[in-house]
Amino acid sequence: MDKVANNALILELNKIGAIKFGEFTLKSGIVSPIYIDLRILVTYPKLLKKIAKSYGPLLKQIKYDRLAGIPYAALPIACAISLEFDQPWVYNRKEVKDYGTKKIIEGEFKPGETIVVIDDLITKGDSKLEVVEPFTKEGLVISDFVVFIDREQGGKQTLATHGFNLHAVLTITDILNCLLLNKLIDKTMYGGVKEFLRNN
Q1: Three-state SS for 73?
Q2: Percentage of the chain modeled with pLDDT above 90
Q3: Using one digit for the tens of pLDDT, what is the confidence trace for 19-40?
Q4: Which of 103, 82, 102, 105 is nearest to 92 (CA)?
Q5: Buried b / exposed e across 15-38, counting CB within 10 Å, b at 16+?
Q6: pLDDT in tens, 149-169
């Protein structure tokens, strides 16, 4: 997608309150001055559809058999991408059922197939490595992760050291530049977040 379209998405995300500034404890334990809540997208289907479409150009560059969503924030996004591009998808369960099929991966697949993992965003990348095992244990092959936002805190490098490629629609810098350009944050806020990213 072009920069104009991406900036339009950023402005819509900001409008619905998905981009927040303050003090937020991330999964890694780090306290961040910026937080992006993409779970809220389930309430905004038109925006969810636009975001699903934004993954398209990146997915075209990758060879895979089906999409894979991971709980929980990425599941609506993976579903929307699947519907937008008419592509099959699977997902792993966080909790394995002790009744019924007792499957850890939901959806049809064949061992040896390649999946591309869809997620909302990436920070350090450690949690992405945790999701690989359930899929590979079932014989699926993973080479690529595609996220909407790269927080630019080492996730790309973490995945690369384990042999995985990261593709991101947007970076935190893209978001900050757009918000500053549109006078939705000031230079002090911009500088503070950039300094935090450099130090973390």
Answers
A1: coil
A2: 82
A3: 999 999 887 788 999 999 999 9
A4: 105
A5: eeebbeeeeeeeeeeeebbbebbb
A6: 999 999 999 999 999 999 999
Cβ neighbours around 155 below 10 Å, total: 23
Give the chain's end-to-end CA distance (angstroms, integer): 29
Residue 56: pLDDT above 80? yes
Q: What is the pLDDT of residues 98-146, one digit of tens each?
A: 555 568 899 999 999 999 999 999 999 888 888 899 999 999 999 999 9
- DSSP β-bridge partners for residue 19: 36
DSSP 30-70: -EEEEEE-GGGGGG-HHHHHHHHHHTHHHHTTS--SEEEE-
Q: Which two tokens stand for residue 65?
A: 């058999």
pTM of this prediction exceeds 0.85: yes
Q: Where are the alpha helices (DSSP H) in 100-145?
A: 126-137
Question: What are the start-end ranges of the H helices in the chain?
Answer: 3-15, 45-54, 56-59, 74-85, 126-137, 155-161, 172-181, 187-199
| Helix orientation angle between 45-54 and 3-15, rounded to the nearest 10 degrees | 150
